[in-house]
Amino acid sequence: MDQISTKRILITGGMGYIGSEIFKIIKEYSQECLVIDKLVDASSTLNHEMPVEKQVSGLFSKFQPKIRNNFQAGPQGKPENSIKFSTVKFVENTSKAFHNSKSNVQSLDLKDAAKTSRIISDFKPDVIIHCATHSALAYKDHLLNSFQEDFSATVNILNALESMPDCRLIYLSSSYVYSGLTADQNYDEFSPLAPQHNFGIAKSFFEQFILKINPNTVIFRLCSVFGSGQALHPNVILTFAKECLKNHSLTVWGRGERKLQYIYIKDVVNIILRSFSAHAKGGDGSVPLAKGEVGGDLAAGIYNLGGDDYISVRDTAKDIANFFSVKVNFLENKPEGETLPFLSNQKIKNSLKTLNYETHILNDFSVISPKFGLEISKNFQAEPLAKPENSIKFPSAKFGGNPAKEFRNSELKNDLFTPFSIALDEYLKSLNKGYPWQ
Prior knowledge:
Strand content: 5-15%
Number of strands: 15
Mean pLDDT: 75
Shape: globular
Radius of gyration: 21 Å
CATH superfamily: NAD(P)-binding Rossmann-like Domain
Low-confidence stretches: 43-91, 97-102, 278-296, 357-413
CATH topology: Rossmann fold
Distance between the termini: 40 Å
Organism: Candidatus Staskawiczbacteria bacterium RIFCSPHIGHO2_01_FULL_34_27
Domain NAD-dependent epimerase/dehydratase: 9-283
Protein name: NAD-dependent epimerase/dehydratase domain-containing protein
Family: Belongs to the NAD(P)-dependent epimerase/dehydratase family.
Order of helices and strands: EHEHHEEHEHEHHEHEEHEEEHEEHEHH
């Protein structure tokens, strides 16, 4: 039996970008999945007599950056060049998967200690995937208030887990913990940190704090995530693609020398699911954990999650512009964003290669988006980069079907991390065919 189907899984922030993508997979195989998010009420209580923008923006904390319809490609882009993004569309599209699901979805503000404790205690999860944290943008503009809310939520979760030591906690951190380090060398999970960005400072604290209180925790330091889904704060790839489709041109601030390490959203979901898809002892759970031991396949600790490629904004912009057949304009007098150093992903590769087990995570990715799915594999191997002849296959399934396609090509021996060129091409094709933000 698929190990995921035997787990009781709780996802916090399940209506967010990463949380909702994880949920779309888990809900197909687990009848005991609980999703909690303070935005759940938005999808069921919209008052059509009131301007929806006002309703949705009111659901966000007062200290969050003001919800805008315009997301700019540059730090201070002109309004006429900005890209439309509807927060209402975000809530409506994300909510569809939840209301069409048999899984349990509940509204919860994690700052409510009593309700958080009661829900977790009653549900008795085997795994908690904690996605409910504020964004880098929120921390950039509102460090104190963002930290206070995230700290309160995290403490409430940790308190609830005090009597459940076997419950695996998965926490999503960020590559921003490496901000402030020189970009001319690579860093791994053991490198000394000296974060300068507000988000990195907070994430670095939470990493150590959580591991100190709850040693049964896996922490993933995510690089720039892109791919299908409803991203409330689009990254540079989606922003560039939108500008190409809207303005039929692409503008880059500076010379595009800034470099980014990306990770495809499907790889994020894949690795998170693998981190708890079998038991630590006995394989089938037949051998109980001794006091003080922790469960889960992946050893507790911190792991970098970033692809194998380190790409300049210039090269990314040119690739996207070529795809949409538009011209790139470089505004060399404009400032560029910060370049974070390249993160070694060898630890996660080695760890999952050592496990070297055969898992049975099956899913039809076309449920997420029509004609937009990687074939899934029963045999996950963390080995060197896949050869072109073993590259990803794209099934042509109808939307909403469920032929139980495989999560990875079984011949694709590597492939924790999809090569950037392959992932980008697939993603741009999906955007070109139509996307929920249109």
